[in-house]
Specification:
41% of the residues lie in helices and 13% in strands. The chain is built from six helices and nine strands. The strands form two sheets. Strands 3, 4, 7, 8 and 9 form a five-stranded antiparallel sheet that branches. The protein has a four-stranded antiparallel sheet with strand order 1-2-6-5, with no helix packed on it. Strand 5 and strand 6 form a beta hairpin. Helix 2 packs antiparallel against helix 3, helix 3 runs parallel beside helix 5 and helix 4 runs parallel beside helix 6. The longest helix has 29 residues. The protein starts with a helix and ends with a strand.
Length: 344
């Protein structure tokens, strides 16, 4: 187990013990509602460190390629935001109802603002407005849909994604929230991030205002239909964009079109990139050509030598037999149309 994982579990247990002690002592005497909300976030963070072994709070939002995933990060973000508000409002509810004399009708109101006498030492269940449920549903649905589309396209060979090797560090830079796999700014991602921040800011601000009111309403804030609609449109555009795979690179020709092991082959085309990046590869029958066999890489040409073995690892057939493989170039999630090359 990673050292930070042990630290995370120890801190999580300590926070749970401290919170249990505070509950036993009485929530009306220890800590403000906002402190309870922050403690809930710290507990979630400690559990994240224990599970991932990373001190970065975004580590649990990384995809299989080690980069920050927008759909995972958004689901994680809304989970944290709603968790804070729920813990704070529930703590305020408990403080009012644990006070001497219970919950006075003048201090507690229902979601419509009408006074509600709930009796001594009784708690009103914290309400979840439909807008909050929709936002949580949007983020989780987007996560499941995006993962399903990506896995389907990987299985069908429509896209390629970098697979993180054991021990390889994650790239948790927030820039991946708005960049596509080919490192270009994606407008749909940018829109989703902006409306998420706007909705979260309004939600937390409303929660703090509700906690400071003289008459307490035991309910999470209502985000509002306009922001919910904008969030839904952004999520739909993001998921829909994953269904469209358009290769930006093109292969015009391969020369020569046949040759034995060791033959120098030039793949001519456009859009390959000035240099080979982490998300780009030259493929033979879908298998990357070994780095040692690629002699040069430019935006319009890739030069390589025919490897000693076929893509599957078997030896090439001896003349006069021959085998034809398909040459493609993968850039991020897209792959060019195949061009045949025959060995020997």
């Amino acid at each position: 187990m990673k050292p930070f994982s042990v630290l995370g579990w120890v801190v999580a247990v300590g926070l749970l013990a401290a919170m249990a002690y505070a509950i036993v002592k009485g929530p009306a005497t220890l800590w403000s509602p906002s402190v309870w909300g922050i403690l809930a976030l710290l507990l979630a963070y400690a559990l994240s460190v224990g599970a991932t072994g990373s001190l970065n709070p975004l580590a649990i939002g990384a995809g299989e390629d080690g980069k920050l995933s927008l759909s995972k990060s958004q689901a994680l973000f809304w989970t944290y935001i709603v968790l804070y508000a729920f813990a704070a409002i529930y703590a305020r509810d408990a403080q009012l109802c644990a006070a001497p004399g219970g919950c006075p009708a003048s201090a507690v109101a229902n979601a419509n603002g009408a006074s509600s006498d709930i009796g001594a030492n009784a708690l009103i269940p914290v309400g979840f407005p439909n807008s909050v449920l929709l936002l949580l549903g949007f983020s989780v649905t987007s996560l499941v849909a995006a993962a399903g589309i990506t896995r389907s396209q990987l299985a069908a060979g429509q896209i390629r994604k970098h697979t993180r090797r054991p021990g390889e560090k994650q790239d948790l830079s927030p820039r991946w929230l708005i960049l596509s796999d080919d490192e270009q700014v994606d407008l749909t991602r940018f829109q989703v991030v902006l409306w998420t921040l706007a909705a979260a800011g309004a939600f937390v601000s409303d929660a703090q205002i509700m906690l400071g009111r003289a008459t307490f309403i035991p309910s999470l804030p209502d985000v509002g239909p306009a922001l919910v609609l904008l969030m839904g449109v952004g999520q739909a555009a993001y998921v829909g964009g994953k269904l469209v795979v358009t290769p930006k690179a093109r292969v015009f020709r391969v020369g020569p079109v046949h040759g034995p092991v060791g033959t120098t082959v030039t793949v001519s085309g456009s859009g390959f990139g000035a240099t080979q990046g982490d998300s780009s590869a030259l493929l033979l029958d879908g298998v990357p050509v070994p780095a040692g066999n690629i002699t040069s890489w430019s935006d319009s040409a890739i030069v390589f030598t025919v490897p000693n073995a076929q893509p599957g690892g078997a030896a090439w057939p001896a003349p006069p037999a021959s085998t034809t493989v398909q040459v493609t170039v993968a850039l991020g999630s897209a792959e060019t149309a195949p061009v045949p090359f025959t060995v020997p």
